[in-house]
Design brief:
The protein has one domain. Helix 1 packs antiparallel against helix 6 and helix 3 packs across helix 9. It is built from 13 helices and 4 strands. It starts with a strand and ends with a strand. The protein is an all-alpha fold.
Length: 327
């Protein structure tokens, strides 16, 4: 047998190993800020991995998943505002409200397709954004500060390293779940609906039920990401619900590789590293030029996205070869 080099496994393994040892390296070099920023990358990668279930595997082009990210964040903020600091209660509220809302909106959105689906998911997200802005008791458009991170008993997530590894563990669990789901009957049906919806209906599958389940799972993962994001920054902002955030998550999935387990993680790493480098570095240039680059770092991101989609059709990670066994 001829075993080709599995670059996907090597790149994915190296990336996750880097995440695993990053806090150790950060402490050794005395740069604790790296831990905080890497935690943000993990959380956004988690949200992108959630969207990937709907978009990459289910073919549901949603511009409204920021709604669930924001919902998770506001569940923490509103509970804390009313004196409920228990993380398990906050998480239960977030998942309960997020799951119920995803079921209702999913039943509505999935009755449409194509551009109509895209626009209706966008419309719902914007509707809830404007709703949150009007909630003056919870900060309105100024957002809602959170005095302390969620309390989980013996798990002290006030410690940045502990919180980092909690976020890392949740991301790993999500990726493992996705990998198992894709190979299971449920995952095969979802991918079949993406490839040929009518054929799957002809074969007798209740495609609405399968697609709704995928949409809800996708939404709940984004809710958990929002929960973690609020704890990271200790703030719930209406901006989390804006369609721009949904667009950023979609770019992460597409740039990394739709329909691949590690693609969203790669996309999140690339985009947030570009932001970290070009939005905050001087590059040894004059103050005026460095400021110009810092203020227009998204132009650099745009160039990367354009080149990425042109040169690697399946995304940066998705275009890497997998090992094939040939007799």
């Amino acid at each position: 047998m001829n075993n080709q080099l599995n670059l996907r496994a090597l790149v994915g393994g190296a990336l996750m190993l880097s995440f695993a040892v990053l806090p150790i390296v950060a402490h050794l070099i005395g740069e604790s800020y790296f831990i905080t920023y890497a935690t943000r990358i993990l959380i956004m990668a988690l949200a992108a991995a959630g969207l990937n279930i709907a978009l990459g595997y289910g073919g549901m082009i949603s511009l409204g998943h920021a709604l669930y990210l924001g919902l998770g964040a506001y569940a923490v903020g509103i509970c804390a505002h009313h004196g409920i600091g228990n993380g398990w209660i906050q998480l239960l509220v977030a998942l309960g409200v997020g799951g119920a809302l995803a079921c209702v909106l999913g039943l509505i959105c999935l009755r449409t397709k194509g551009m109509a689906f895209i626009m209706i998911t966008l419309a719902f997200a914007q509707m809830f954004y404007f709703l949150v802005v009007t909630l003056d008791d919870y900060g309105g458009d100024d957002g809602l500060p959170i005095a302390a991170r969620s309390a989980f008993g013996g798990l002290n997530i006030e410690n940045s390293t502990v919180f980092y590894y909690l976020s890392f563990a949740i991301l790993v669990a999500t990726l493992l779940f996705t990998a198992r789901m894709v190979k299971a009957r449920f995952g095969r049906v979802i991918r079949g609906c993406h490839s040929n919806h009518q054929r799957m209906q002809t074969l007798g599958y209740d495609t609405m039920r399968y697609r709704l389940a995928a949409y809800v799972i996708s939404a709940l993962i984004c809710v958990i990401a929002g929960f973690l994001l609020a704890n990271l920054v200790r703030f719930a902002s209406p901006s989390y619900l804006m369609w721009i955030v949904s667009g950023e998550l979609m770019v992460m999935v597409i740039l990394g590789g739709m329909g691949t387990v590690m693609g969203p993680v790669v996309g999140a790493v690339v985009i947030l590293l570009i932001e970290a480098v070009f939005a905050n570095s001087s590059f040894g240039l004059s103050t005026e030029l460095a400021t110009f680059i810092n203020d227009h770092w998204m132009a650099v991101l745009g160039i990367v996205v354009v080149l990425g989609t042109m040169l690697v059709e399946k995304g940066l990670y998705g275009s890497l070869p997998e090992r094939r066994n040939r007799a």
